[in-house]
Amino acid sequence: MSDSDRTPNANRRQIVIEAGVWLVFAGLAFYFSLEFDKPLPGFKFGAAHWPHVIITILVIAAAVLIAAQFVRGKQKEGEADQFFDEVEDNVERLTPQTIAMFILPLVWVYGMHKTGFLIATPFFVFACTWLMGVRSWKRLVTFTVLFYAALVLVFYKFVFTPLPMGAGWFHSLNGEIIGLVQ
Q1: Cβ of 124: how many Cβ atoms within 10 Å?
Q2: pLDDT tens by residue, 126-164
Q3: What b/e sequence results for 140-173 when a residue is b if at least 16 CB atoms lie within 10 Å of its CB, and e otherwise?
Q4: What pTM, to 2 d.p., does this model score?
Q5: Which of 64, 109, 117, 126 could covalently link to 163 via disulfide, CB atoms 3.0 to 4.6 Å apart?
Q6: DSSP 107-166
């Protein structure tokens, strides 16, 4: 059955089922996270705090998805979502840019293990942003710096996550950068 053959109620039912599956997934994730919810010496909220935050965000997103289906009212027969009006006609084409977007994370992971998270990530963010079509150098650099600062703040100040430090002298350099952050 094509998208044009679907009734608005079938589309609504599909979205509600999808949100329901996400809620079941969140419930299972919460259940399994209870096993490691013990206090940690360096983090008073416990090991399961951040997984619980992510699970809560997931539940809120699913609830908003369900609520939006009932708040926006009935869609008239034959009326398509505006999203389909904005989709380009050539989306099925595989471009070099698309291939690069799939290869770039693999290069980043490889580079992260050689040079460390703190060294490889700014280059990855810059390259991803450029591949997504941002061509203004001012915007590229500003976004890269701000996004990188947010990542470092979240992972090293709030979550206390040990990330790859790199090998050789990159390990020492990453250690110095972490010393500056902390």
Answers
A1: 19
A2: 999 999 999 999 999 999 999 999 999 888 888 778 888
A3: beeebeebbeebbeebbeeeeeebbbbeeebeeb
A4: 0.57
A5: 117
A6: HHHHHHHHH-HHHHHHHHHHHHHHHTT---HHHHHHHHHHHHHHHHIIIIIIS-------
